[in-house]
Sequence to fold (387 residues):
Amino acid sequence: MREKPAQLVPLDVTNSSGGSREPLFGLDADSLSRLLVAAGEPAFRGKQMAEAMYRQWLSEIPEISTLPVTLREKFVAEGWKIGRPVIARAFQSVDGTERYLIEFEGSTPKGKSAEAVWMPEGDGGEAGDETDTEAKDWSRATVCISSQVGCAVNCQFCLTAKLGLQRNLTAGEIAGQVVAVLERQSVRVGRDRENLVFMGMGEPFLNYDNFMAAVRLLVREVGLSPRRMTVSTSGIVPGIERFALEPTNVRPKLAISLNAPNNTIRDEIMPINRKWPISEIIAAVRRVPLRPRERITFEYVLLGGVTDRPEHAREVARLVRRSGLPAKVNLIAWNPGPGIAYAMPSPEAVAAFHKLLIEEGIPVYIRQPRGRDIFAACGQLKRTLEA
Ligand code: SAH
Ligand code: SF4
Fold:
């Protein structure tokens, strides 16, 4: 299958428009080579530039010592910038989780920043996946990144929904969050076993091209394994259908935010369900070719009194069984947020729900809330400035 380049190559090397240029971060090695060739340089300079940005994590053109000084100066003079997203603020939780306010090249702090989260111990969401079959004592660090600023989907229990959709992030802005966090945490790619989840702000499948271009950058240029990446969607069927066509060696694992045992409750808490109900989502997911041992994750947010009853657990078990999919369920106790009128489930309700699914033979894990004290937990990302 032919794949698209990460981004169109800007050939306007003279910057004749006089405007500011797009950041270089986000262009893959081939695009960079074409850019350099258009500037009269040999193609291998593009590869060197990609190495500098994606492997060495250099963030300024003058630092790229593999390029001749004259070339670096020329690029700077012409207005080029690496333009990788920067961590503008960091909030630390008592549990070690860090939440970052990420600013993008040319963005103003208020309108255009997004959030990423670092969980040194993960949150248990990776348990039972294809990557989790070896030793038990490796690092489970997880990076959670955003795909949009805000979100248009309007799930009633989610704080990000309150922002509405402000804008899509570009491929470079999505991948750049990852590199910024990995650099801050001194992660050694290829040696440390970090996980990556597209579960921050936004709906990745409503920004599909940029999301997948970011995945390709992270796999091919940065060197991360797609088997340790998970994308979560609220159930955007056309997005799932496109995802099903991606080559399995360059796509993340898939998680579906099920969150309700039936369409009646799902319509109410996730209005998007009226457009793409559960049966259509499952039909689309079945078209995704899975890798050996790969499973689909169903995420299930437990809302006190609304989705956390024993009859709901039995209904979820039936639904998962009938789907015929190799699947597991990740339970997430709802994290509260200002202005959202749901209740947290009681610990007893969470335990009972978990136990019922086990009895029904469904692989099930409880995702631990991380960083609740700094508004870093699932569904709490809203660029909150209080720590
Ligand atoms: N937009 C995508 C990915 C981001 S949300 C999606 O919805 O799947 C990541 C997960 O957090 C989803 O499973 C979502 O259902 C869950 N979530 C949202 N708000 C939450 C909250 N307040 N408490 C717990 N989980 C929440
Ligand atoms: Fe958007 Fe996901 Fe929040 Fe729904 S749960 S509003 S899809 S970020």
Summary: The chain has eleven helices and twelve strands. The chain has a mean pLDDT of 90. The CA atoms of residues 286 and 324 lie 8 Å apart. The first strand starts at residue 86 and ends at 92.
